[in-house]
Design a protein that fits this description.
The protein has six helices and two strands, in the order βααβαααα. The chain is mostly helical and about 110 residues long. α1 runs parallel beside α3. The longest helix has 18 residues. The termini are far apart.
Length: about 110
């Protein structure tokens, strides 16, 4: 499996996805992200960095649609952020940890 190990690689992939999205729309951006990020081995901090970079140019109204479509790809890497959130909730072991993460997720959906 190919591996992505640097922010430089992430920036190149994100720039290509941005260009493809501008030319062909959000579906092309989704496919580019899937092929270039989710089908490769990428450490979680780099996936998080990639998500931040992508969301800088994806209009807010399209962000939820983009993330829903990426999750729907069922690629192993597409579930990592959900897994990480569950890990944080478990580690927190307090009701308010779940509440805080839930509030953030709710804000993303509104």
């Amino acid at each position: 499996m190919d591996q992505i190990t640097s922010k430089v690689q992430i920036r190149e992939i994100v720039a290509a996805a941005k260009q493809q999205g501008q030319q062909s729309g959000i579906e092309c951006r989704i496919l580019s992200s899937q092929e270039c990020l989710l089908k490769k081995k990428v450490r979680f901090p780099l996936l998080k960095f990639a998500a931040r970079e992508i969301m800088l140019f994806v209009p807010e109204a399209e962000q939820l649609h983009l993330t829903d479509r990426l999750i729907a790809t069922t690629e192993m890497r597409s579930y990592e952020s959900i897994h990480k959130a569950c890990t944080y909730i478990t580690m927190g072991n307090q009701w308010y940890v779940c509440d805080i993460i839930g509030e953030r997720a709710n804000k993303m959906n509104t």
